[in-house]
Every structure is written in structure tokens, then in C-alpha cells.
Amino acid sequence: MRFELKAKLTFSGELKQVETDIESTMEKAKPLLCKGAPKDKEAGAARVVRWRVTGRDLEVELESGRHVRAHDALLRLAKLLGAELGKKHKLGLREMTASECRVVLPSIEVSKHTRAKFERLPYDVKVGKAGVEISLKNLTEADIRGRVVDRLISMVEEAFAHVPARVAEPKVVRRGPKLDHPFREDPFEVAKRLSWVIEFPARGQWIYTEPYTKLLRALEDIIIENVARPLGFEEVMFPKLIPLEVMQRMPGYLDGVPEGMYYVSPPPRDPEAFLNFKQKLRLTKRLPIHELRRILKEPAYVLAPAQCEPFYEVFALGRVRLENLPLKQFDRSGWTYRWEGGGVEGLVRTQEFRRIEFVFMGTPDDTVSIRDEIINKSIEVLEKLGLEWRLSVATPFYMREGDVGADIGDSKKVATYDLEVALPYEKGWLEIGSYNVHQAKFAKSFKIKEVKDREVWTGCCGFGTSRWVVGFLAQHGFDPSKWPETIRKGVQPLPPTHKVVE
Predict the structure, then answer these.
(1) Helix 210-223 vs helix 364-384: crossing angle, to nearest 10
(2) What is the DSSP letter of 343?
(3) Quick check: 416 and 395 in contact, CB under 8 A?
(4) Distances 274 to 280, 297, 386, 496 between C-alpha atoms, Å
(5) I need a surface site. Which of 9, 255, 351, 498 has the fewest CB within 10 A?
């Protein structure tokens, strides 16, 4: 790997009269630019290849290999020059920019799929004879300090590493007994026919009527009484309107699946701003969408896609004490929102859905233990409900393959377990729960520190209660008299659907 960097350091005064001191500082910087490179890899360190003074600007060019990359060397050099010239000549460093940064990765075979991924990257990436060339221009100091170069290299290397493949069969680690399922209809079609759900104008949204709602609430109550309470979880209510700066700290969301969220644009709190909108609506009786586009501010929020975002934000940039942990909370106060686009499917993949989100924080051992206890309690609930289930190992979307291992024999190395129930009508399976240990990933992203710098882990377990209803109805049908006693006593009497329109 090779780096070439052209940068400019702007000082508070003219530099011509201090060129001699700049030259001596450049000599002094040589060992500093090699610091960190292995003894036998000094050739991979950074070096200044040329520099010149123009007014208040110091133009400098650096080259390096993989070790002590040129942009990191620039920061070291800028700090040293700022200190030396400030001490001797009262010259302060005012600005640092890079007009060009070129990175060459060693020659490697690049597939058509990988080339297509390169074309979608925000900087110029080309495949040449020397290898893959990355070109970044007009980098600000914030870009340099924010490690934009390193992140782009990682994105290019990920493109190399990723090979499209068929979706692998889940690694099933536990399975309940196989059960008979006399009911074989699609619960979505039956629910529509019985008016347990009524179509709403927005695709992927439904009005859930009295019997469906009572069944969902009964299942939620069973989960809370049999999982949350015995394990010491306390109920909280989290906001569902999440500021973008909070969402940015959630690994894998804005930088991974920004296409899967609803964005919220706040309006100006000014009735006059809506004058044209209101007048056109009254006159034409048609919604003047173009007027809304003109009025609304830029997006500032998303509707909660994960439900656990506020839990980590409470501790962002703060310090916790292990002796006060583990902390265990759950939230069921509202909807979760995800933009599924064309992926909407009946009641199993909707744009808004109900969940109970369990969140927790503690030592690594505590966090894994809590996650595994939640799984065991969840399975006990499924067996009380007479549902056929299986548990499989999964890799969550917010972690790269290998970030958290999938050693099935060691729960501590498993990032995620998925709990699924059988769907007899299609001879398939439906995920109803995701049980995650993030290791220190979320703590690092939210800059959560422990007072003695001991390691803190977080975890979350999402119970997709909308899907629990689908799985329950798929296996037991819609006749409450045939439901297990555990749920029957929670819904009796099951209210009728009140049809006002024939």
C-alpha cells in the first residue's frame, strides 16, 4: 500500500523569514514520522519529499507505505511545526487542508461486482495497472482528523472481501419438539376475512381491531410476566422520534441501512409559511406536495427503527461504574418503524410494528448471561403456548462478519441468536426474536466509559410481538376454544369485531 499526500498548513503570519527554522524542524520530524513502524519495516513509514513556503502557507508533500500513513504523519508534523514556530516566532497554525491524497492498494483481481461497488463510493476509485487507486481531493482538517482516508480504505477492502453468495441456511443450535398443526391457512388472509385487521391507505400499515389487539396485549403480558419480571427488568418509556446525531452513533444504521428508515423534517413554527399551502389546498382540494417541499426544513430526526437508541444515549460521553451494573430495562411504549419499500409482506413484514425491547449493560460475563437467560425464558414461554420453535445463530447487520464470532460452542462469542416459530401454511419459519450481545461495540460508539476503564458490554433483545401474533395464529388458528389455556385465560372473553360498514 502506498500513500501520496499534498497538503497546506496556513499560519498566522509570513513564513519567509523563518524558513531556516522550518528546515531544522523538518529534520527534527524525521524520527517522529517513523515512530510506530516495525524495526524491519521503516520503509513503510512516512517521509516529507518536498516543501515550500508561499506567504503564510507551507505547502508540503508526504509519501508513505502502510506504516505511519501519510495523513497521520501530517498531523504529527503539523503539531511539531505549530509548537516550534509558536514558541520561537509567535506564529500560530490557523488551517490545515489536503488538496490531494492518493492511495494505491496492491494489484488484485477485481470482479465486475466489486467494480460496481467502487462506482458507488463517494470518492474516485479506479483499477489501474499499479493496483486499485483511491483519489481524495480537497480534504479539510476535520476530514483528516476524522480518519476519512482510513474509512474509505476499509470500504474498498470490504468490497474486495465481499463475495455475493446464496443466503446460507441458519445454524440451528436448539429446536423444540415437532408438533402437529391441524390449522394450515395463511393467518393474514384469515385475519383480513374476519376483519381482525383492516387495510390502511399506507402500504404496510394496518388497523388492528379488538380481537387482534387483545391477543397481542395478552402475549405481551405473558412475555413481561414470564421473562422481564423474573429476570429483574424494569419498564421504561423511550422516545420514538430520534435525532439524527443520536442515530449516527448507532452502529450500522445511517452508515449501513439509511434506506430502511423514515426521516422526519420539522416545519417552521410560522403560520405564514403555510399560507400558500393552505390557500392552494382550499382552492383545488388537492394536496400541494410541492409547497410542502418548499416549506419543510431538512430532515432532523428518524422514526425509531431499533427502539433501543435512547438507552445508549443516556450514557453517551459519560462514565458508569461496574459496581452499579448490570442495568436492565425494557420498553413497549410504542411502534417501531422501518421502511421496507417493496419488501412489505402481509403481517410479517410491515412498515410499523409492535415490539418489546429488552436492553442491558454490564460486565462481559453479566451481559452474555443476561442474554442467555432471556433466551431460555422465551423458550419456556413458547412451550407454554404450545408453539413449535427453533433457535439459530445469526450475524447481525450492524457487525461485519468476524467482528463478533460465531463459535456455536461458546455463547460469549456469538453475536446474535434468532428465535423462530414454524409457519405450517408455507412449511417455513418466522423470526420472532433477536437476542444480541454487542460486546463493547455500542459502548465505544457512544463513548461510554467506566470510571476505572474496565470493559463494559451492552446487549438488546427484541421481541417482535406483531410476529408473535402471526406465529401463534399460524399454528393455533382463530378459534379461541382451541388455544392453550395459558393464552385463553388472558383473552377471555375475546371481543367481537364491530363492523360498522357492510
Answers:
(1) 130
(2) G
(3) yes
(4) 10, 13, 55, 43
(5) 498
Give CA–CA dist 248/82, Å, rounded.
Answer: 33
Question: Is residue 279 domain-resident?
Answer: no
| Residue with the three cell numbers 405450517 | 424
**193: amino acid identity, one letter:** R
Euclidean distance between CA atoms 334 and 88, whole angstroms: 62
Distance, first Cα to last Cα, the chain: 72
Q: Bigger pLDDT: 334 or 114? A: 334
The CA-atom distances, in angstroms, between 273 and each of 110, 264, 278, 297 are: 52, 18, 10, 11
Is residue 51 domain-shared with residue 151, that is, in the same domain?
A: yes
pLDDT grade for 404, boundaries at 50, 70 and 90? very low
245-298 per-position pLDDT tens digit:
999 999 989 988 899 999 999 999 998 999 999 999 999 999 999 999 999 999
Grid cell digits, residue 308:
433501543
What's the domain count of the chain? Answer: 2
Same domain, 175 and 102: no
Domain with 312 in it: 171-265+300-491
According to DSSP, residue 230 is labeled T
Domain at 177, CATH number: 3.30.930.10
Domain membership of residue 198 (yes or no) is yes
* Residue 138: burial class (beta carbons within 10 Å; 0-12, 13-18, 19+): exposed
Whether residue 115 is found in the same domain as residue 178:
no
Q: Give the integer Cα–Cα distance in Å for 351 and 343.
A: 10
**What distance in Å separates the CA atoms of residue 82 and residue 66, rounded to the nearest whole number?**
26
Residue bearing cell 462481559 = 364
**Residue 70: inside a domain:** yes
Say which CATH number the domain at 100 has: 3.30.70.1920
pLDDT digit string, tens, across residues 197-249? 999 988 899 999 999 999 999 999 999 999 999 999 999 999 999 999 999 99
Burial classification of residue 89, based on how many CB atoms lie within 10 Å of its CB (0-12 exposed, 13-18 middle, 19 or more buried): middle
